[in-house]
């Protein structure tokens, strides 16, 4: 299982909530797959050589905090603490690597 990621409830809706359907959204509105934070726990850092890519998701209606999810070369995903100094360095390295 991914490190620190919410595995959800196996597709079972929360009691008392209706599932979101296309009909509830205005025409052309994007359908958001996850309406909650994906990272429940974060790591303070991970060795740069183990990281394949990094996805930074800014705060939004799905989650009030910035989320940093690293795709590891092993195939696993790991949630990283965006405020940790080591994670900030990783993000900078990954951004510089792509340019």
TrEMBL record:
| The entry's keywords | Chemotaxis, Cytokine, Disulfide bond, Growth factor, Inflammatory response, Secreted
- Output the lineage of the source organism: Eukaryota, Metazoa, Chordata, Craniata, Vertebrata
Chemokine interleukin-8-like domain: residues covered: 34-94
What SUPFAM superfamilies does the record point to?
Interleukin 8-like chemokines (SSF54117)
Q: What is its main location?
A: secreted
Q: Which PROSITE patterns match?
A: SMALL_CYTOKINES_CXC (PS00471)
Q: Which Gene3D superfamilies match?
A: 2.40.50.40
Q: Does the keyword Secreted apply?
A: yes
Q: Tell me which GO cellular component terms the UniProt record holds.
A: extracellular space
Question: What is this protein identified as?
Answer: C-X-C motif chemokine
- Protein family per UniProt: Belongs to the intercrine alpha (chemokine CxC) family.
Organism of this sequence = Prolemur simus
Molecular function via GO = chemokine activity; growth factor activity
Q: Which residues form the signal peptide?
A: none
């Amino acid at each position: 299982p991914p490190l620190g990621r919410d595995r959800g409830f196996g597709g079972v809706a929360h009691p008392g909530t209706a599932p979101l359907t296309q009909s509830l959204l205005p025409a052309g509105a994007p359908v958001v797959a996850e309406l909650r934070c994906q990272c429940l726990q974060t790591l303070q850092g991970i060795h740069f050589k183990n990281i394949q890519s990094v996805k930074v998701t800014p705060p939004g209606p799905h989650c009030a905090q910035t989320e940093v999810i690293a795709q590891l070369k092993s195939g696993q995903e790991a949630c990283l603490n965006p405020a940790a100094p080591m994670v900030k360095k990783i993000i900078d390295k990954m951004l510089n690597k792509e340019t």
